[in-house]
Write a structure and sequence with these properties.
This protein is mainly α. The chain is built from two helices and no strands. Helices cover 95% and strands 0% of the residues. Helix 1 runs antiparallel to helix 2.
Length: 153
Amino acid sequence: MIEKIRKAMGIVGDKSKNITDSTKLKLDISTHRKKMQDMYIELAKSVCEMYGNSNIDEEVISKYVEEINEIESLIKLKTEQIDEKKSEIKEDLKDMGDSAKTFIKDTADDAKDFFDKQKNNLTEKLEKNKNEETEAETEDVVENEVVEEEKAE
């Protein structure tokens, strides 16, 4: 029984890793979005400064755009990974449900077997006690009859 519980806990531990990984990916996306937002603000400030100085530097703008595109690619990749993790989590939950059902069924079967054995043992003991009581009563009746016969003589 304890081994079954350990096995079930191991399955839960293994399966919960996907949830942890998914949460970490969501945090990473949030960090990347914040960084991308900061990059847009920096880009806007730079463009305003360049426009104010009448000196638009396309190379500077291009670097910002490249960094923003890289961040967008990372966000897309992480989002795809989250989608994969969601599928794995759904499958894990289904497996865990199936494992739980099997565990409960096996445990119920084990309990039934245990109680059936206990019932059989008690039934056997009761039968044995009844037989012993019947034998003792028979001996008492026979003994009483003998005593009665002796008195009658």
